[in-house]
Amino acid sequence: xxxxxxxxxxxxxxxxxxxxxxxxxxxxxxxxxxxxxxxxxxxxxxxxxxxxxxxxxxxxxxxxxxxxxxxxxxxxxxxxxxxxxxxxxxxxxxxxxxxxxxxxxxxxxxxxxxxxxxxxxxxxxxxxxxxxxxxxxxxxxxxxxxxxxxxxxxxxxxxxxxx
Length: 163
Known about the structure:
Structural class: alpha/beta
CATH class: Alpha Beta
Largest sheet: 4 strands, parallel
CATH superfamily: Toll/interleukin-1 receptor homology (TIR) domain
């Protein structure tokens, strides 16, 4: 699946150890009112034989929103840190993209990733997606704040486009 030229492209960055959280995020990314306007991309979109580094770097250059599924594994990944986050921070500094961290586990972003700590995390300040699950018995309780936060980022991108 390729995005329409006018679509807002979301690059979803995650550690493969946390692939189950990517699967949990998929239904949250389906916006009926803007089905043709939002294109979520992650490395599972690649096909056999694709050159993965090239495909990821091209997607990083196309993206409008960088969605980071933040965990200790995410922060420990050299590729995520040296390629994906580096590109996201550089493009955000030029005001080309929005960055949306989604915190999977209780993490102190101020200590563990100060640059990412500058961005309002989802599902909420001081509460990770896993903590929603522990408190409520199911992870879907975090869907609403995550979905609303992503919608806000998408709307910022659309509002900032010319005419």
